[in-house]
Amino acid sequence: MSDELVFRNGVIVNSDGVVHADLLVKEGKITAIGASLGSGDAEVVDASGRYLLPGGVDVHTHLELPAGGTISSDDFFTGTVAAACGGTTTVVDFASQEHGQKLPEAIAEAHCRAADKAVVDYGFHVAVTDLYKDAIVDLREIVSDGVSSFKVYLAYPGVNMIGDGDLYRVLQAGGQLGATVCVHAENGTVIDEIAADLFNSGKRGPESHALSRPPETEVEAVQRAIMIARIAESPVYFVHLSTRGATEAVAEARLGGWPVSAETCTHYLTLTETEYDGPHQQAMGAVLTPPLRSEDHQKALWQGLDNGSLSIVSSDHCPFCKAQKALGEGDFRKIPNGGPGIEHRLQLLYGEGVATGRVTLERFVDLVSASPAKSFGMYPRKGVIQVGSDADIVLLNPSETTTLSATTSHQRVDYSLWEGKTVPGRVEKVYSAGELIFSGGIFTGSAGRGQFIPRAPR
Ligand code: DUC
Ligand code: ZN
């Protein structure tokens, strides 16, 4: 048996174009693209009527994240199985520093969580919550070990939030080391005050989560961080933008030639704040941070994807089961923040973006694969179907549909934000490094097969 794998008759889609060609894979890499490839005994995959996409790259996931007195329900096995089944073959998760912990220890712990479990390739952003003496020296080492992005929170005072001085220092280090600084931009101090007022006036249900985080709390933090990045002479990247004002602030900075970029997430593009008006369980499940917004904000996010001010769509997968969400029964401030979405990011953006004509097929690939790979130091190993790249390949059938549900999902969580929703397109097969890891609804890979991907600085 030959060690060659050849995909025939498919349509290869990259962020810069579409071609009809055969694709040859050998030893986990793409080795040729052209006509009539492969020896006589190559394994042949008939990709007629399918798109061949580069594997999805999700640069914002929280697997096994301690939060709100509990821990997110997917670990590196279940979470990456779900990623694989939805066409995502690389995730960048977080090595989150606890107070008093040295940054290299946080990274060592993250490696331990992932190594024997991950079924797709992975990397880490290091989340800096405590800028101890010599933290900046450690960051230099961390970048050279392949962790070339940092995360900071301007929300959650007393837990993760850092002050503006530390933000300046981390941005300055990122600028000097070529590391991308990812900013969770919400004004945590103001939010906590509003939340206390709501709680004290008896408004204690999940709908108060959104009321406590008005759009301005995001816009202010984005504007402030852009200015501080400017002073620190550093690029800056915003995670999970949810508002028109924040998207416009990024657009304006970019127009001025400033190195500012941002992502939004599938849930902000497809759901609105009306989720908080639904039954109690549904509202609890939609306690995400930032919260879901109005249709007007959602429209601005789609425009941002169109005009380039938003360059990546991530899942911000941070699942908690209903029983975990219930920790905040009677006090919305204690509901663990986050929701599931790692499995359905490609499906949702294809169905709601490509099939509706809001984004082209090429832009879709850019948003879910090429741009995250480029922005986070993995391109062209990831994010593109070209000779020399990893053979991470998704077969998507545009003639089929997919119905999203917690019961058919591989995520370890007992609800879906999109329960019962049917979208055009179906992820039929997924290959990682040339190995078939998902086919016909079934995961076919194995725990620990995923590799840590050292990511280059800018
Ligand atoms: N921030 C995130 O980035 N993800 C989940 C929850 C949160 O607060
Ligand atoms: Zn997140």
How are the elements arranged and paired?
Elements: E1 4-8, E2 11-14, E3 17-20, E4 22-26, E5 29-34, E6 43-46, E7 51-54, E8 56-58, E9 66-67, E10 70-71, H1 76-85, E11 88-96, H2 103-115, E12 121-127, H3 135-144, E13 149-153, H4 164-177, E14 180-184, H5 188-200, H6 207-211, H7 215-231, E15 236-238, H8 244-255, E16 260-265, H9 266-270, H10 280-285, H11 295-307, E17 312-314, H12 322-325, H13 345-354, H14 361-375, E18 393-403, E19 422-432, E20 435-439, E21 442-443
Parallel strand pairs: 1-6, 2-7, 8-11, 11-12, 12-13, 13-14, 14-15, 15-16, 16-17
Antiparallel strand pairs: 1-4, 2-3, 4-5, 7-18, 9-10, 18-19, 19-20, 20-21
Summarize the structure.
By secondary structure, the chain is an alpha/beta fold.
Q: Could you explain the architecture of this structure?
A:
By secondary structure, the chain is of the alpha/beta class. 32% of the residues lie in helices and 23% in strands. Strands 8-11-12-13-14-15-16-17 form an 8-stranded parallel β-sheet. Strand 9 and strand 10 (70-71) form a beta hairpin. Helix 4 (164-177) crosses helix 7. It is globular, with a radius of gyration of 21 Å. 57% of the residues are buried. The mean pLDDT is 98. Residues 62, 184, 239-240, 289, 316, 318, 337-338 line the site of dihydropyrimidine-2,4(1H,3H)-dione (DUC).
